[in-house]
Amino acid sequence: MADTFVIVGGDAAGMSAASKAKRDDPDLDVVVFERGEWVSYGACGLPYYVKGEIQSLEALVSVTPEEFREERDIDLRTGHEVVSIDPDERTVTAESEAGTVTESYDHLLLAVGAAAVVPPIEGTDLAGVYTLGSMSDGKELREYVARARDGESFQQPDRGPACRYLEDCAGPVGVVGGGYVGIEMAEALAANGFEAHLFQRGDRVLKTFSEATSERIADHLGDQDVAVHFDADVRELASDAAASGGTDDETVAAIVTDDDRVPVEMVLLGTGVRPRTGLAETADVELGPTGAIATDEYRETNVPDVYAAGDCAEARHVVTGDPTYAPLALTANRHGRAVGQTVAGTPTEGGGVAGTAAIKAFDVEAARTGILDHEAAREADFDPVSKTIEAKSRAGYYPEGGTVTVTLTADRNTGRVLGASLASEYGEGAVHRSHAIVAAITNGASVFELENYDLAYAPPFNTTWDPVLVAAKVLSGTLR
Amino acid sequence: MADTFVIVGGDAAGMSAASKAKRDDPDLDVVVFERGEWVSYGACGLPYYVKGEIQSLEALVSVTPEEFREERDIDLRTGHEVVSIDPDERTVTAESEAGTVTESYDHLLLAVGAAAVVPPIEGTDLAGVYTLGSMSDGKELREYVARARDGESFQQPDRGPACRYLEDCAGPVGVVGGGYVGIEMAEALAANGFEAHLFQRGDRVLKTFSEATSERIADHLGDQDVAVHFDADVRELASDAAASGGTDDETVAAIVTDDDRVPVEMVLLGTGVRPRTGLAETADVELGPTGAIATDEYRETNVPDVYAAGDCAEARHVVTGDPTYAPLALTANRHGRAVGQTVAGTPTEGGGVAGTAAIKAFDVEAARTGILDHEAAREADFDPVSKTIEAKSRAGYYPEGGTVTVTLTADRNTGRVLGASLASEYGEGAVHRSHAIVAAITNGASVFELENYDLAYAPPFNTTWDPVLVAAKVLSGTLR
């Protein structure tokens, strides 16, 4: 009898594993339990859907449930929530509207993802408070924007920043958190004519990027009329009821910080995600130091034949060699695929992560990779040195072009490249240029090697020394 | 007394060496002999100047002679042609309008560059036949274009392709050679309303790129109304005189191939370059197997304290470890700089080359790196396997975007990445994406490592698996 491969969770990691396992071993019975209705969707596209650049949620789906079932012969069961695992009996139990079902497995993959963090403050359950973790979140936010744009909730508040997009601003609206989701949603809202306020704990957005990148993005957000409130520890989301002394209005009306109270009609919480680990813990699957599910290099957990991949699991950092939690799409796809390949008979590691990330904020793009934070570098026994340079994105004489800001970090003793953060105008290549540094980091290259990379050059694409090489040259100069 | 560092040639390699040596050791006497008037110019920008996208030749100069002399304290002598070297006496002799001068050196750098190849056929000395190797070539070509655009030489020939740019085509004009210069000049001429014919020996343009890239570029040239003549071995450039039986008209009038005779008013020879080695040979400086000056890893020749760098010299290929001739701007800059650093007291290798190159052709961009040719790979004891993929340049649901074509070559036994060729619409990142592969090649990474690179991803920049990773995934799949 053929083995049964049971997968819990039908997004990037889960469906990559299902597809790869079935393709490599068509005899395998592959069963996927997904509690929702959507599978294999590009959650990274949700901000662009809310913004209105993508017209349907369906466009974010790369493969439909029908295609998985009919073309790939995968037993995909949507609307099924797995509620327990019995590792001794090798079964999972799932609940659906039709009742409870128990399924045996030979191999089990936990690909249950992460949940949006809701900060422990008052008012997060008020109407008008959103997160952006799921397709239904995206749908609700799009509907909110559509309502506002149709004028149903338009106001003329006492505005701070001007709205460039519509004659009359909607809102104001508040975004809590200056990470990827917060910034992308601030853009989506501002571009739709909302007076957008971004609340950032601490003194910079995108804290995992370099200070130079954070500053460039924050400046650009300001240029685009997003009001960025720094050092703004949000204490409470207040309702009109609170404001007016106790009516029944339970819609959010203000964001309250230590020293400010900003009126808002809507709040988007972009305060990060945390791995979903509840199901794993019921089966005595161990968590790692980051709080996500611990695995070996094949993504197998401490429980034999139980794997974990994607946003619920840890990965190994290519620089430190330590477990890290970097819940992003590529890792989920890659590790899911590797598990599928392993289960189908070819043990596959799937590789580490470099903590690489990219973002577009209006007309600026940025990427980061590796270890930039000096304290984190020192904890991993490096002696970090960083340099930031600004260089032209194309030959100086070439018409068009902009500026690339590169921060590069290396170990003083060995010259090993540890991390980088790049920013440029959108289209001027900060993100794709970061690829070279990801490669250098992954291969353990030194900055002396990086500065000698024979990178492609022609005037429409860079200066003779690409900005990446300029950064390497400057940094290596300080290490010799 | 301070050492004297004499440099022959005032372009990329020479002035990089001069600047770096003087910066690192201000006591050094640095003397540069340049036979022309221009120094430190971006020859790569000449096609854009001829096209009219750059308005002055001066814009191509990164540092002026005055700046070198006054701000960098370099004894730059333009209009001085070095005619002999005496390695025993450690002197060079230069001629100028003012007479002959002999200068002693402690360290000597030959940075004399390369000369445009003129094919050994009849008619290359006719009026209207150009090469594009120097600033004065660029000036003459720009003047030719300007005259034609002012109507002085406009005609209404029996045209093949339509001209999209002007109501009346000028020309026809012929470009011989489908390499970088040929293609960039075909664009410069066609964009100015010339009926442009490109003559390519063999069946594809850009022979050092992959066939998929060549085809994409050739198709696009056709779309842009450049008539590409394949398998066109040019036998002769014919004048009107020849055509009409012996008048005095000595301007080019036709390009004659084995089986065709195409009327043209002007010809651009883009048939490659060859290293200038005459001066070196007079001093018994040895040439290598490629015909360029042989050096060690510090760019020192067989003659002690005589260095060679830039387009006159060989470099070591990072994949094969063998000497190669890759006369491009970055190598000249990097190796020149390394010699400057060495002469100033810090021996510096400057690194190998990967044969990386980039080109923009109208609205398509392309890059290549490493070893793509299977025969060349086998000569270097590899067992090459190649795969070509097409992938979307951005998330499928993201508005905008195009297609990236990636050809990836690896060694079957070890999986080592040997080379790559990429093409995309201009702005869709083929060139910057090639950076990752240059890094992989330089670090000796395998395709199994490359497919696990944690490259930056966000919907405006790529699909979750960047096209580079898709190519690696597909190629590695054939090697397992």
Q: Features of this protein?
A:
homodimer; 480 residues; alpha/beta; FAD/NAD(P)-binding domain; five-stranded parallel beta sheet; 13 helices; 27% strand; globular
Q: TL;DR?
A:
The first copy, chain A, is α/β, with parallel strands linked by helices.
Describe the protein in words:
2 copies of one chain form a homodimer. With 480 residues, chain A is α/β, with parallel strands linked by helices. Chain A has 3 domains: 4-37 and 44-114 and 274-343, FAD/NAD(P)-binding domain, CATH 3.50.50; 129-269, FAD/NAD(P)-binding domain, CATH 3.50.50.60; 366-479, FAD/NAD(P)-binding domain. In chain A, 26% of the residues lie in helices and 27% in strands. In chain A, the strands form 7 sheets. A 5-stranded parallel β-sheet of chain A has the order 3-2-1-7-18. A 5-stranded parallel β-sheet of chain A has the order 9-16-10-11-12. In chain A, α1 packs parallel to α9. Chain A is globular and about 65 Å long.
Fold topology:
Two copies of one chain form a homodimer.
Chain A: E1 4-8, H1 12-24, E2 29-34, H2 46-51, H3 65-71, E3 75-78, E4 81-86, E5 91-96, E6 99-104, E7 107-110, E8 114-116, E9 129-131, H4 135-149, E10 170-176, H5 180-190, E11 194-199, H6 211-223, E12 227-229, E13 234-239, H7 240-244, E14 252-257, E15 260-263, E16 266-269, E17 273-275, H8 278-282, E18 306-308, E19 315-316, E20 323-324, H9 329-343, E21 357-361, E22 364-370, H10 374-379, E23 384-392, E24 403-411, E25 417-425, H11 430-442, H12 447-450, H13 467-479
Helix pairs in contact in A: 1-9
